[in-house]
Structures are given as C-alpha cells and as structure tokens.
Protein: GTP cyclohydrolase-2
Organism: Aequitasia blattaphilus
Amino acid sequence: MNKIDKAIKHLQQGGLIIVADDEDRESEGDLVGLAEYATPETINFMTKFGRGLICAPISKSLATRFHLTEMIENNTDPYRTAFTISIDHKNTSTGISAGDRAETIRQLANFNTSCDDFLRPGHIFPLIAKEGGVLERRGHTEAAVDLAKLSDGYEAAYICEILKEDGTMARLDELKKLAKKWELPLITVEDLTAYLLKDEAIKVQLPTEFGDFNLTLFEDAAKKEHLLLSKGNIQDAQQPLLVRIHSECLTGDIFQSHRCDCGAQLQRSMELIHAEGVGAILYLRQEGRGIGLKNKLLAYQLQEKGMDTYDANIALGFAPDERDYTFSAEILKSLGIYNIRLLTNNPEKVSSLEKSGVKVVEQIPLQISPLKENINYLKTKQEKFNHRLSL
Ligand SMILES: Nc1nc2c(ncn2[C@@H]2O[C@H](COP(=O)(O)OP(=O)(O)OP(=O)(O)O)[C@@H](O)[C@H]2O)c(=O)[nH]1
Ligand SMILES: [Mg+2]
Ligand SMILES: [Mg+2]
Ligand SMILES: [Zn+2]
C-alpha cells in the first residue's frame, strides 16, 4: 500500500501521523490528526511530545460557515500562516485542558455546530487552508486539510509542531527517529503533492501523425490544464528519460507560424521520442513565455515596429520571461522521474528544473534551421536569453 494510503488509514482510525514540509521551507514536522477524532489523549500527546502550538486547519468553506476570518488583514508572516481569531467551544470550562481543547476541535467537525457555539477568543487557533491545497501552498495547514478531505467529510484537522526535548525544532532525521519510536506514519508534503497529482490525472491514448502516444492531463492549483504526451513505459526507462518541456505557443504550434521555431521544435520532439520508443513531452500552458496570447500579440506589434522579443516584454511591463517550471518538476517527480535528458537550447529550463529537484543529466540541443522571418528572433534568444544556438 502507498505511504499516503497507509497514513489515511491511520488517520481514519483516529491516530496521529507526522507530516514534514519541504526542507527548504520551514523544514519542520507536525503531528496531524482528524478533528473528528480529537481526544484528551491525543491532545495530551501533542502537548507532551509535540510541544508546539496546537492549531486547527480548516477549509475555506468551513471558515465561512463559522464566520472565522483571518486574524489580520496585512499578514506579514513570511509563510502567510492564515490564523483566524482563536476559539473555545461553549461547552468547555477554561478551554485549555486536553479535554476542553479536544472538545473545541471535535466541534469543528460536527455538522450541527453553528457559528455562535464558539466563544472568541479562546485556546484553539483555526488556520484557513488555501483552496488549492498543497498544490497551491506547501504548508502543514493545506496538507492537513487535504488529508482530511481524503479521509473524511469534515475538512477539519488539528496539528502541532514537533520540538525536540531541548526546545529546538526537530528536523527530518530526528522526525524519522520519532516516527519509529512512536510508531506513527511519517509522510512529507512532497509525498502528498505527488499522490494528489497522480490521483487526479486523466490519461488517454493518442494516436498521432508521429506515432502512438499517451496523453495525461494534470490540473494545477489555478485550474490550468497542463499535458504530458508520453510514449512507452516512462517510469521504467533503461536510461534517463528523454524529455521535452514545451511552453504553449498557439501561433507556432497550431498555425506553424514562422515568427518563432516552436511548431517545428514540437514536431521534432515528437519524432525523436517516437524514434527512441520512450520519452515525454510536457506541454505547459504558459503561452507567450507566461504573459498570455493577447500580450504576446501586443509584443508582436512592438516587434513589428523594430523592438526585439526581450525588450517588447519589458515595454509591456513584464519580465523578459515569466515562465515557471516548478509544476512540471512536480509532475515528473510524481511519476518517479528524477533524472532526465532534456531537449532544449534554453539554459534557464535546465537550472529551474534542477532547483526543483529534477536532475538534467544531459542537455540535448533542439535547433531548427532558422528562417528569414525568425532569424532575428533566434539571435535575440542567443544573445539576450543565452540560448545555446549556432546561427
Ligand atoms: N512574450 C513572447 N513570447 C513568445 C514570443 N515568441 C514566442 N514566444 C513564446 O515563447 C515560448 C517558447 O517556448 P519554448 O520553445 O518552450 O522555450 P524556449 O525558451 O524557446 O526554449 P527551447 O527549449 O530551446 O525551445 C512559448 O510560450 C511562445 O508562445 C515573443 O515574441 N514574445
Ligand atoms: Mg508549519
Ligand atoms: Mg523554443
Ligand atoms: Zn512560438
């Protein structure tokens, strides 16, 4: 059984699990449980062994139902932790005993509880999760609510950071030891992201002009639909996978525009991958280097007046390249692909992927013979974007 499935089962039995976030983020571990099953014992365990702050992550809709808004409008916390005003359920006494805190938390996961049943301020700190979950924000708040959504119908959880006995933060190595000692499942936000991506992916067969492929759709937190066009058993390739990461270019990809080399690069990639028998093209919906079709056409108008593709973006108020490759790295990692041979001339793609944990063992140039209409465009890419081209 998958790590996440095991963790979900443990949560559904009322147990606590440990969730570690990214080592380049907070790099901390939290004890996490489902609000529905909070007991004086689990709360006491959190206070004795977790020693952090006990909080209750809830979904946006639950926050709305209980009239819980963010504690402060201008959140200046670097991680923008979405604390609401603190609460106690009206049936509690001082609100702080393990029993009282368990009661307040459990009432968050009760369809009969109403907004007036919570006194404010109190001793439980609700946190509002982003609607896109860990795909939108890689925090414990989102991880806890995503897990609650996968485990029960309440969208409410409770969490507590894990401190070492000396009061300092427990990092991953220490968390692994504690998980063993306490016999609790340990998962990372990265495991959960991969699980959700895979769980929601839609896969179909796609016979094409260039051979038979599989097409898989992945939706990002902003509901943009990115595609993986793959061939062969990509999770079990003999050597680092041959990959093309291609950003949408409607004019080039569909109309075979000669203003750029996108259409030809896409076709060549499909041919190369078909010939190799295994490989993948990630087709990212970041049209116009991330500024969208309308703005790209405005940039084209500026280029018709003599500006180059780099300066045209700046003139429109954008960075020369607004693209982001983190989601493509997430997709690859969710498939267990950590080493690739990348078809590109663009050094920025290589470094961005490596920063996101996908190693580019080889950069394979993808040069298309320049045409008179795009030679200047390609020269700008070479000079200002450092593309590896021989022109
Ligand atoms: N803003 C802007 N975008 C453009 C222009 N011409 C092409 N594009 C976009 O540039 C992107 C090209 O993407 P890719 O071919 O994946 O990337 P690349 O930077 O060319 O690097 P390679 O991997 O070597 O192809 C697409 O999103 C196009 O829509 C332009 O003049 N202005
Ligand atoms: Mg945290
Ligand atoms: Mg290109
Ligand atoms: Zn293009």
In short: Residues 33 and 162 are 14 Å apart (CA to CA). The first helix runs from residue 3 to 12. The longest strand covers residues 118-128.
